[in-house]
Amino acid sequence: MENYISEIQSLFQQERLRDAGSVIKRFEEDFPEEAKENELARIIKQDLSLADQCLHLLGDMDDWTLVKQSENIATFTKGNSSDFMVRAEMTMKHSIFPILALFSECQLLNEWVPILEDAKVIGSPSKFRRLIQYFLKMPWPIENRDAVVSAVGIPIQENRSILIVLKSIDENNYLSFPIPETNSTRIDINPACLNIHQIESNEVQISLVARVDVKLALIPVAIVNYAAKHGVFYFMNAVKEMCDEYSGSKYEELVRSKPEYYQEIRRRLSTFA
């Protein structure tokens, strides 16, 4: 049993979640009760299931309502109340790497994501996983919200893409990291998916789908428009602007200051060629 646990932990730290999933299946066959109680095995299975769910959501364009469209960005909404979803699609002339640099430096997100008042990194359980507390600015008369999420990047080799999966954390403790209490209303994000697909070496398509429960019995039309027109549209536009300004930016400096981390990202991206 200890060999299984050790191998799962090692694969988790390397962010080889699919390989870890295969080991977990064998662990469950040989030690079903112990596997059921193992927190790390449970989290990895949830992540793999969410990744599959995200790929399904990203591939389903039925019943989305177009809200705003520009030359390179389109935003959509679907549903209402606890099953409210937003979607955005964007193509741009950049490689994947600077986009991943933006999202790796989570502590700086509030500097360029319009809807964020602040973003705090709670912990890093593995190389490419972050536990983050977001503080969100909401339009009047809605009070501001916060969210605590686990975010992880998963390479989808067959699609030549990196899938970033976010899910809300509702436990008080997550992989030994204490989860802060909130002084506001905490929203649920289950899930949010950001897929960065390499079309050519210098062209990408970014797709975002997020299912969000903002804790309102009825979501006013103004909030729907705010989410799709302001929050999501300007988020995607900000990604493009930040990538346009990457050369000589603080992000390029941070990449140089963390050679081991970013060399591993480059190595994984090189397999898409």
TrEMBL record:
Domain START: 64-248
Record-linked InterPro entries: START-like_dom_sf, START_lipid-bd_dom
GO molecular function annotations of the record: lipid binding
One Pfam family it belongs to: START
Name under which the protein is recorded: START domain-containing protein
Lineage, opening ranks: Eukaryota, Sar, Alveolata, Ciliophora, Postciliodesmatophora
